[in-house]
Amino acid sequence: MRTESERAALARAALQTITSDPNQAQLALANADVMASLLKDLLPDAPREAAILVAATQNGLAGSLSQHVAAGMDGQTAVRLCASALADATGLTPEASTWAAAELALALHLIAPDAAGAPVSGTAVSGQPATVATAAPASAGPPTTMAPPAGYTPPAGSAPPAGY
Predict the structure, then answer these.
(1) Distance CA 47, CA 25 (A)
(2) CB neighbourhood size of 113 (10 A)
(3) Which of 51, 98, 120, 147 could form a disulfide with 83 if both were Cys (CB 3.0 to 4.6 A apart)?
(4) Distance separating alpha carbons of residues 77 and 65, to the nearest angstrom
(5) Residue 162, strand partner residues
(6) Exposure pattern of 114-136 as b/e (b: 16+ CB <10 Å)?
């Protein structure tokens, strides 16, 4: 059984793989079914991480993050704003929502690797076992691609919330 940190590193690598192909990235980040299918293959040992990322996709998180940054908002503020909206829409804890928003922002090169955050703990759905509530997809549109920040190197891995 993989540790939380190992699952987080796998999730980060899976997002990097998905976003490394611009055509695949646009499709996967805008379509929860495509994201779920890709993550099923890429993260067979990390179903909770995959479920949180699929919930984020269902709610248009990548598009919202990209739109905020394109409008001039700094990446960290965009992550906080989108994480709050995701938590409100899905019932995910703020920690799980922040993890998803930060990992997507990192995969889209909207924040630097050190800004993705440290491990946090908490449950995915407030007071509930590991299930993810879903909401109707946001109408944010397809994500845009951004150039990596100067000095960008692939991240070492951060951990999502425990027990979500």
Answers:
(1) 20
(2) 18
(3) 98
(4) 9
(5) 121
(6) ebbbeebebbbbeeeeeebeeee
Q: Say if pTM beats, i.e. exceeds, 0.70.
A: yes
For 80, phi then psi, to 5°, come to: -60, -45
Burial status of residue 21 (CB atoms within 10 A of its CB: 0-12, 13-18, 19 or more): exposed
Helix (H, G, I), strand (E, B) or coil at 6: helix
Q: Structure tokens of 108?
A: 């889209």
Please write the tens of the pLDDT for every residue from 44-88.
999 999 999 999 999 999 999 999 999 999 999 999 999 999 999
Q: How many helices (H) and strands (E) does the chain have?
A: 7, 0
